[in-house]
# Entry
Amino acid sequence: MQDDQELSIVRRQLAPDDGSPGIQIAEVIAEIDDREMTEMSTMYDCIDGVLEDLFSDPPSAEAQLMIEFSYEEYRITVWQDGALELVRPGS
# Structure
């Protein structure tokens, strides 16, 4: 198990009403990694449809639903309230 000093953790808040959550996540990663989104693989094939459903037809708040997946070397967690956490092992 890695200790916290070896991990890079970024937390942001997605805006569920401001477009595709997959695009918002890709924008955050592009910003963090200082690269163009066009250099990244498409998220839709990985998870984007599920993310869209999470925000367009959310479960009750009591469900406390979260989705966790890997994309572009990050372990990504998205909660139904739009909270976002990206974790990448340090280099």
In short: Residues 21-33 form the longest helix (13 residues). The radius of gyration is 13 Å. Residues 4-89 form one domain.
